[in-house]
Specification:
The chain is mainly α and 275 residues long. Helix content is 65%, strand content 4%. Strands 1-2 form a two-stranded antiparallel ribbon. The protein starts with a helix and ends in a 12-residue tail after the last helix. The mean pLDDT is 85. This is Putative PTS system cellobiose-specific IIC component. Residues 1-275 form the PTS EIIC type-3 domain.
Length: 275
């Protein structure tokens, strides 16, 4: 709630409307909705991080309202959050005011112009997409959750592209971005990172090893929902040189096929994330 309130505090409270006479009027007391869709995602992430850090620092230093021990713990905790919460929200607003005074842009417009849009532009190249896929696969091979490690990029950049394409679809406009967050799940990570759903099916059809078949049977229901930890750690694929080449190559091939098909218009860009 502190992060949400801080985000509202830095969002411009005025909008420009055109009157019937054709005059452009600045109306106060309305949230600027242009920064509340995908274009405001980076701002929300930054302000959420900023306000939460302030809140946590003040709480750790016990800069709170202290009530007697006779007060119930639930009530004490609620009052303890008042001062850190207010300070975090006010400092977010002050930061937004300073940025607006110095640059002439709101903090959301500044982040959108100089951070979010350049990142989105870079993210749409084939090389950038391949680097993301390769990095995720390498992290997973060494036992790290690659999708979570690169979450700030996948969600911060590609989720913005998904939201922008979704807005374009609703408004019946042309899609703005070729590759989005949903593209990875729909075309590359089928059954989870490494396209392990294909591996599970292949084991069940071809393999005669009982241990591999047992792992595949246990992994199939979860693999259908893109959860592949059982097969990744059960086979295991982690640190297994036998699986390294297909683990790396298959997602790259799938990326090339899906990216090319989207680029030539054979399939439309993804405009929604897989639930």
């Amino acid at each position: 709630m502190i992060a949400f309130a801080s985000f509202i505090a830095v969002t411009p409270q005025s909008i420009e409307v055109t009157s019937e006479a054709g005059e452009v009027i600045s109306a106060w007391g309305n949230l600027n909705w242009t920064l509340l869709d995908a274009r405001g995602l980076f701002t929300a992430l930054f302000i959420g991080f900023f306000s939460t850090i302030i809140y946590a620092k003040l709480m750790n230093r016990n800069i709170t309202i202290k009530l007697p021990d006779t007060v119930p713990p639930a009530v004490s905790k609620a009052f303890a959050a008042i001062i850190p919460g207010i300070v975090a929200i006010y400092l977010s607003g002050i930061l937004a005011f300073i940025v607006s005074s110095l640059s002439g842009l709101s903090i959301g417009e500044l982040i959108l112009k100089y951070v979010q849009m350049p990142f989105l532009g870079l993210s749409q190249g084939l090389v950038a997409v391949l680097i993301i896929v390769l990095a995720v696969q390498l992290f997973w091979f060494f036992g790290l959750h690659g999708t979570n490690v690169l979450g700030p990029i996948l969600d911060g950049v590609y989720l913005s592209a998904t939201a922008a394409n979704n807005s374009a679809y609703v408004m019946k406009e042309s899609f703005e971005y070729l590759w989005t967050r949903g593209s990875f799940d729909a075309y590359v990570w089928l059954g989870g990172a490494g396209c392990t759903l294909a591996l599970i099916i292949a084991i069940l059809i071809v393999s005669k090893r009982e241990d591999s078949r047992a792992v595949a049977k246990l992994s199939l229901p979860m693999g259908a929902f893109n959860i592949n930890e059982p097969v990744v750690f059960g086979m295991p694929i982690v640190l297994n040189p036998i699986y390294f080449i297909p683990w790396i190559i298959v997602p790259i091939i799938l990326t090339l096929i899906a990216y090319g098909a989207t680029a030539i218009g054979l399939i439309p860009p993804v405009f929604n994330a897989v639930p």
